Amino acid sequence: MNKSLITYSIISFIIIFFFGFNFLFSLLGNILIILFLTPILLVVIAFLTINSFKSKFKVCTNCGTTMISDNESCLYCGSNFSEIDNKKYSEDASSETIEIEAEEIN
Ligand SMILES: [Zn+2]
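Output (structure tokens, whole complex):
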């Protein structure tokens, strides 16, 4: 324990002797900056990962199960997500409303 303390003091003395106090202060400043920046960086990384998970998070429109996967089809019922999306959004809204009105009349 004392041996390590002596070696650390010698190393710090050598650093001060060769590089001066400015180097030591700048080093400490850099360490402080890193300590402050790493939590911010971690928060940013967490935010990005959550966003990517949200994009992967899918709800099957056929059976209603939620899953996290890159698959294009449902793991439970096997219905295709892209097919469902195309059915939902490829057609115009005006044509959709006309269809619904026709069904109501019948
Ligand atoms: Zn399904």
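The beta strands are 57-59, 66-68.
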